[in-house]
Amino acid sequence: MPLIVLGAPPEILALFSLWTAVHGMFQHANLDIRLGPLNWIFSMAELHRWHHSRLVDESNTNYGANVCFWDIVFGTRFLPADREPPEEIGIADMPSFPRGFFEHLVAPFRWEDVRARSGAEPPAVVG
Question: Is residue 102 domain-shared with residue 60, that is, in the same domain?
Answer without folding.
Answer: no
